[in-house]
Please model this.
Amino acid sequence: MLREFRADLHVHTCMSPCAELDISPRAIIKTCREKGLDIIGITDHNSAEHVLVTAALGAEAGVAVIGGMEVTSAEEVHLLVFFENAEESLTFQGYIYNHLPAEENNEQVFGFQPVVNKDDEILFFNKRLLIGATDLSVEQVLQRAQLLKGLVIASHIDREAFSMISQLGMVPDHLALDAVEISPHMGKAEALKTLPYRKTIPLITSSDAHALSDIGKRVARFLLQEPSFNEIKLALRGEQGRTILW
Amino acid sequence: MNLQQVVDSLGLEILTGAEHLAREVTGGYASDLLSDVMAHARPGHLWVTLQIYQNIIAVAALKELAGIIIVQGREPEPGIVQKARSEAVCLLRTQLSAFEIVGKLYSMGMAGSP
Model:
């Protein structure tokens, strides 16, 4: 039986240096419950450290957590990358860590990067420069993510910074993206009319939450059998009746 | 050369940092990739960019740049001016393009540095 599920696939946690410190995995899941979200994407900048803990909390609360991260390419394009299992997220994280700048995060300038447990206790601070860009091209990020059977979505292509359109001038036709995302700043009709991308690529929207109050500001509605990575993959491909409802 | 001389010669608009114009400018750097600026700009450089995202303030503070010139009269994102003030970053603006403003800076005797 197919039914509608509400998803916000672009949420940062407190580990992202630019996010609020109270947007912890526990608080995110609580907020999802309050706002009636079925599926959430955990997408910190260049790191998947909070995927496992959020997935565990989500499983207890009946919120499906799709893990991955928001990668910064060498061109400073933001790409959402999702995987079926936490294992693949962590394998991919290892690859990304090897391609981040060697210098450490400067907490005073860019913000703190706490890694926490289920009870909001700080385990350690991520020392990597997560705000930085990898030395990987968009093509290289896509290739590696797809090798691990991941989904790749170009982030907030309507934005003036860190979007594929701001950085590359367009969404190049040859990129095998699974979807493109627009932020809460733009509506669907305007995106279809004004943004330079091939309209056969599925369009989704999400909140890009950096604070608890942002979560669910934009929701993508999907027609699925169950709230899972593989069902979302089918919906993005428009297969077996699964679809994006908007 | 200090910021005041640059502002006066080129008629730059001062968005923040009027109190920091005595700051010495040691050279310039032009780029719109923040990671590139972090890797290659030097303390005391004046940074020419079309970026108006708030991370430019963090980068300028981290690299101890003399200031930022935003080109083409672009309007910074909300909050950025306030952030520049709190980080003591001198934010300047020109209506000219990056190519033109860099040309003028260069002809004033300002150079990039390796």
Observations:
- The CA atoms of residues 13 and 213 of chain A lie 12 Å apart.
- The two ends of chain A are 19 Å apart (CA to CA).
- The domain at 3-245 of chain A is CATH 3.20.20.140 (TIM Barrel).
